[in-house]
């Protein structure tokens, strides 16, 4: 990812099933996480800063582990330039095979 705007805070924006458990798990991610019932979840806003990408490339990697159907054991992790910045477990990301 390469950006041309300074002083930007990063976040994970998740479009996942709006279950009570998902809302609880996502809302616990610091420094700021908010639910938007119409659009999804803003997760970990400010946990990384995009101004480091101004004028250079930045490595962004997601790891998504789907939950077992009927279980709340899914995971999402986000790495920026090889450093773990967001890690969430206990999620329901799917309801069928």
TrEMBL record:
<dbReference type="Pfam" id="PF21294">
    <property type="entry name" value="Polysacc_lyase_14"/>
</dbReference>
<protein>
    <submittedName>
        <fullName>Polysaccharide lyase family 14 protein</fullName>
    </submittedName>
</protein>
<dbReference type="InterPro" id="IPR048958">
    <property type="entry name" value="Polysacc_lyase_14"/>
</dbReference>
<keyword id="KW-0456">Lyase</keyword>
<feature type="domain" description="Polysaccharide lyase 14">
    <location>
        <begin position="5"/>
        <end position="96"/>
    </location>
</feature>
<dbReference type="GO" id="GO:0016829">
    <property type="term" value="F:lyase activity"/>
</dbReference>
């Amino acid at each position: 990812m390469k950006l041309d705007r300074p002083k930007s805070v990063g976040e994970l924006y998740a479009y996942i099933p709006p279950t009570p458990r998902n809302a609880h798990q996502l809302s616990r991610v610091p420094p700021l996480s908010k639910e938007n019932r119409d659009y999804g979840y803003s997760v970990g806003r400010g946990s990384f800063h995009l101004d480091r990408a101004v004028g250079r490339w930045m490595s962004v990697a997601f790891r998504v582990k789907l939950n077992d159907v009927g279980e709340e054991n899914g995971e999402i992790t986000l790495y920026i330039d090889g450093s773990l910045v967001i890690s969430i477990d206990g999620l329901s990301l799917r309801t069928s095979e």
